[in-house]
């Protein structure tokens, strides 16, 4: 398996120890909504994980009220945060869902889109619903954008690519998050989308070397479009990528296996 260059680490600390160090006065409840599960943890302003990570399986079909209920349940199980952030696996603007992506499917990634379910999601004010349910300030962004904030050093053009059920991208330029673009909708090598090319359903049917090759092709495509200074590969399948297959990209691509979809949450308040 490949070696990974140093990345800012998400450190799991017992909450009591963090309290003695005086780090728990500004905790964010960070939620990472995924196509297969939703995770939650308390995160310090410095991006440290200050609680256990709670998980709930994503159950389909998933209506907006169902996701709100899941997040409220997770919040009740964890503790008392000052504020909340949510990484959502679709297009969101000002806390309102523009496109729910896989959450509008009947049974998750690879299954048909339910038009009635999509209609419930489109235009749903997720941030507003959660503010009312939790009584806390809530900010919602695309999940890959949250990961990008965790990975960014603050200098130059920094792309984060998340590999999991599908492909996500987040772009940060000189420390500022760029409005989200659904680059996973790009077609490549005859596949209708990048999700179809290297997402989890495709990966399961491929030899590891072929999946590596396709991931490298995706990164090369994104580099031609963005001309990034640095790219970080994250997400549940990042650990499967053999970094030595990156060739000429090797000096500009990092791989992290940290929970950046959680630890980037507080950065939404910067």
Overview of this structure, please?
It is a single chain. This protein has 270 residues and is of the alpha/beta class. The protein has two domains: 15-144, ATPase, nucleotide binding domain (Nucleotidyltransferase, domain 5), CATH 3.30.420; 148-262, 2-Layer Sandwich (Nucleotidyltransferase, domain 5). The protein has helices at 15-20, 64-78, 115-121, 126-134, 143-151, 194-198, 200-204, 208-226, 260-263; strands at 28-33, 37-43, 54-57, 83-88, 91-93, 96-99, 138-142, 157-163, 167-173, 176-177, 230-234, 253-255. A five-stranded mixed beta sheet has the order 3-2-1-4-7. Strands 10-9-8-11-12 form a five-stranded mixed beta sheet. The chain has a two-stranded antiparallel sheet with strand order 5-6. Strand 5 and strand 6 form a beta hairpin. Helix 2 packs across helix 4. The longest helix has 19 residues, at 208-226. The N and C termini lie far apart (36 Å). Mean pLDDT is 90; it is low at 1-23.
Short descriptors:
alpha/beta, Nucleotidyltransferase, domain 5, 2 domains, 12 strands, disordered N terminus
- How many beta-strand runs? 12
Ends apart, CA distance between termini: 36 Å
Name of the CATH first level of the largest domain: Alpha Beta
Helix content: 25-40%
User: What is the approximate shape?
Assistant: globular
Q: What is the total number of structural domains?
A: 2
CATH architecture title of the largest domain = 2-Layer Sandwich
> In CATH terms, what is the fold-level topology of the largest domain?
Nucleotidyltransferase, domain 5
The poorly predicted ranges are: 1-23
C-alpha-based Rg, rounded: 18 Å
Overall pLDDT, averaged? 90
Strand order of the largest sheet: 3-2-1-4-7
- Looking at CATH, the homologous superfamily of the largest domain is ATPase, nucleotide binding domain
The run of helices and strands is: HEEEHEEEHHEHEEEHHHEEH
Structural class: alpha/beta
Given the structure, what is the number of helices? 9
Task: Report the sheet-strand fraction.
Answer: 15-25%
What characterizes the major β-sheet?
5 strands, mixed
